[in-house]
Design a protein that fits this description.
Helices cover 7% and strands 47% of the residues. The chain contains three helices and 19 strands. Strands 10, 11, 12, 13, 14, 15, 16, 17, 18 and 19 form a ten-stranded antiparallel beta sheet that branches. A hairpin with a 4-residue loop joins strand 8 and strand 9.
């Protein structure tokens, strides 16, 4: 009988510690023995934004059909019963995500989940990646067990009659590919943005990139990985902030970015990540005016469950907050056209072309820097601040 991880109390292991291989009882004629290869993980993942952490653990070699992966997770009690919704991990074999555990229920401190696989692999490592939906949050991956069986070898049968002997060799079933190539994509899009303190709207350029598996199967979760989000701040905005004395050449301006990613024909439809901190540098060009600047952040992985054999991922909305040293930062809320091309799709499809140039700013009522002026006028301590304003940290 296969040895299984058993949860008791707060997810303690009842049997195997470290690496182990346990084979099932002898198979019947024509069947293949099932093997369970296990490893202790013992990794605690904590998500406070940014790219999710992962850990790769060694396994005794696996070469055959992986039937399932059993994952044991553990988490301390939640303070005051607070709800948490990022207690998930994804499992990868040979660079292929084979499944993601569900959120650990709020009233549970440990659980064991079986992820069905049913594909061929030849690997000796397994990767566990935190798969947060919302943050901050944490989860401990305690252990993993891979249940698999060797690929059946071709069989030979002999049939004898009084006159002839016939030998037939059935063609062995070719296992699926052991690696699933990633399908990366990138697109740049103009968004209609508004700043708090200013009712006018203007356009900013956002860029998003990410990767999906090359094959989509309905009902099988897929992970959107390697995400990066960028927003381009026009030189006109930074030049007017410089004219007002808010920034100077070489200043580092903190920027916080967030976005909502939409994936139609999926069970989740959207995922949102926010509070991703980055910065931009104010640079003055040869003509003596500020140049455009781009703020970029890595974004966390997102798991979607397709309802068909295709998935297209788009940016639905985004936010950017610029800290210019005022009492309140300049906050931008941006919306995108719902019919924009996806920035990544699987199977591949047309995506947005190369990034557009800096968008033209026409008419004084549409300047984004009008919002900056509003903040200056509303900032009660502006005059005092402008006299004793500490210098920003220049790029070293």
């Amino acid at each position: 009988m296969s040895n299984r991880w058993v949860r008791s109390g707060r997810g303690a292991l009842a049997s195997v510690l470290g690496l182990a291989i346990v084979a099932s009882a002898s198979p019947a004629l024509g069947q293949t023995a099932t093997t369970e290869t296990c490893a202790a993980v013992g990794e605690r993942f904590i998500h406070r934004g940014g790219a999710p952490a992962s850990v790769t653990v060694p396994l005794d070699p696996i070469d055959g059909i992986v039937e399932s992966v059993t994952v044991v997770v553990d988490d301390p009690p939640h303070p005051q019963g607070a709800s948490q919704s990022s207690e998930r991990v994804s499992i990868s074999l040979g660079g292929v995500v084979v499944g993601t555990t569900p959120d650990l229920p709020d009233d549970e401190t440990g659980a064991s989940y079986v992820l069905p696989v049913g594909s061929a692999f030849a690997v000796d490592t397994l990767t566990v990646t935190h798969a947060p939906d919302l943050g901050p949050d944490s989860i401990t991956a305690v252990s993993v067990c891979v249940t698999w069986s060797p690929t059946p070898a071709p069989t030979t049968t002999t049939t004898t009659t009084t006159t002839t002997t016939t030998t037939t060799t059935p063609v062995a079933t070719v296992p699926p590919s052991t690696t699933e190539p990633a399908n990366p994509g990138q697109g740049s899009f103009a968004a209609s943005c508004a700043a708090n303190g200013d009712d006018d709207r203007t356009a900013l350029v956002w860029t998003a990139q990410g990767s999906l598996p090359g094959t989509i199967v309905a009902g099988t979760p897929v992970t959107l990985t390697e995400q990066r989000w960028s927003v381009s701040i026009p030189g006109a905005v930074l030049e007017n902030a410089r004219t007002l004395g808010l920034v100077a050449d070489g200043d580092v301006v903190p920027v916080t970015i967030g976005a909502t990613i939409a994936a139609g024909d999926t069970g989740e439809q959207v995922h949102t990540a926010g509070g991703l901190a980055t910065s931009l540098v104010v640079s003055v060009g040869a003509e003596g005016v500020a140049l455009p600047a781009v703020a970029t952040v890595p974004a966390p992985d997102m798991v979607f469950t397709p309802t068909g054999d295709r998935i297209e991922v788009r940016v639905a909305s985004a936010t950017a907050t610029l800290d210019l040293g005022l009492t309140e930062p300049v906050q931008l809320a941006c919306a995108f056209a719902p019919d924009q091309p996806p920035f990544v799709a699987a199977p591949p499809t047309e995506i947005a072309g190369p990034p557009p140039g800096e968008l033209a700013f026409t008419g004084p009522s549409t300047y984004l820097w009008a919002a900056i002026i509003v903040f200056v006028l509303l900032d009660v301590g502006y005059l005092t601040w402008s006299v004793g304003r500490p210098g920003r940290r220049p790029v070293s």
